[in-house]
Amino acid sequence: MERAIFAGGCFWCMVQPFDEHPGIYSVVSGYTGGHVPNPTYEQVCSHTTGHTEAVEILFDPTIISYQELVTIYWQQTDPTDAFGQFQDRGDNYRPVIFYLNDEQKKVAEKSKQELAESGRYSQPIVTTIEPAQPFYPAEMYHQDYYKKHPENFARNHALRADYLKETWGND
Asked: What's this model's pTM, rounded to 2 decimal places?
């Protein structure tokens, strides 16, 4: 098994797209990139810990590649918005690909360049690619939120879903 860590706004909205693919063993909501060990949701929301909401994915690379995960990632975010995602604003919602090794960094950077050159976006791609830092799982009530609270999830996900459909269509 290998790990991947992606931040793309509210972690509730980042679980489902990965959770539905063969070869994904787990998708955990959590926090990374900050300076406070084991932060709470309230601390992260205070914008004082430096953490970003993210998902940690445990996957089998013989079934799904890291490149495929990065492709899924791009199709879940607005990579032109550095200050949050959709209705979620602030540094704790910024889009980041956190790499765990040189190969992941290389794949992410190449993919970002290809996306920038694709002409799909008229604005620059501002998603950052950064070395992974300690990942802290979020509280249990955040895990699998889309399964536990489908009505809340649908409401929170509506702006994202509309944007993604407009940007990616059926890709």
From this structure: 0.91
